[in-house]
Amino acid sequence: MKNLKAIIMIILLGLVGCSNDGFGGLFSNKKELIIIPREDTIKALVTVEDARFSIDIPEGWVIETTGEYATFGFRAYDPDNPKRSIFYYGKMSPFMKSEEAKEFWAWYASTGYQNSKLYADAPVLYDTSIEGLYYTFNVFTEFARTYGINHNFPDFSKLEILEQYSTPTEMSNNAIDESTLRLRIDDNGYPIDAMVTATLVDALYYPANGIDVGFYTAYRVSGIMAPADDFMHHEDRLAESLSSFRYKDEYIQEGVKLIEWETEQAKLLQKTLNQTTKLINDAWAYRNKVNDKANAQFISYLRGKAYLQDPQSGQIYEGDQATIDDYLNNPKDYKDPNLIPIDQNSPQFGQPISGVIKP
User: Fold this and answer.
1) Which of 93, 116, 221, 271 has the smallest CB count inside 10 Å?
2) How, if at all, do strands 215-227 and 190-204 pair?
3) Whole-angstrom distance between the N-terminal and C-terminal Cα of the chain?
């Protein structure tokens, strides 16, 4: 019995000697940060199609179309958060060249040519650039609704142009401007990131009464958008979804037979749309990452979040400010005391996170 007691005592002494809590960790009161892997807010892509087209969109999304043939367009979005979306409009027209041009067509309509009223009502594109196009986008969609186009267009009412890149396509010979833009959209105080592109052409020069009363047309008006923290993680998936769009050959031929489409124009639009992913991805790769930090700073303020990084794996974790403050003030109270803070001055601030710290 004495030998048994001696053996037990030796074991206990050994445990005491090799543990921080005196009992080999058996009775440790160290806190542990529970890290939940970040869940994808934009799911894997699935194929949807009809007689006109096929496209791969994130699981759970819906797609709504408008127009036919040359004017065909669509918007696909997450019904739980419609700000997560992609869109493509093959042709948006007309954009008038001046108020004087609108007045001419209003006068012409008053003489009995009622079809001219369309041009009298169309918006003026004061800035003949892709920037000007997107600043006028909401005005155009309101005009379209007055002519019976009931479609759930994306909203660009509160946008800021952060960056602009010249991105010529095979339509550039006829273009006034071809650019890809990075936008920040204000959604009731929450930043939405968007990468958008288009081709703008002078569709009609028509001198009358000493002025040009013709109009501009925008082609391949397209883009991807999501809340800034979603966009950071899923830009590539959104761009992949947009680039997967394909017209069915039968649909193109049907449009040609109805004289609604020219075969070469349809193929050119398809080809330039297929280039859109590269244009957007290249522009995103060369983006000014100062804007990433600005978004992250604003989002962390709105949501009361802060960040820690594992110095060994490089992974970044997001948590409530109070939880992270407690960790930073008392790191030795935690099982892993080596995580480092990522503040607004850190080069890693604004980079994608790997997990969320449970409060």
Assistant:
1) 271
2) antiparallel
3) 50
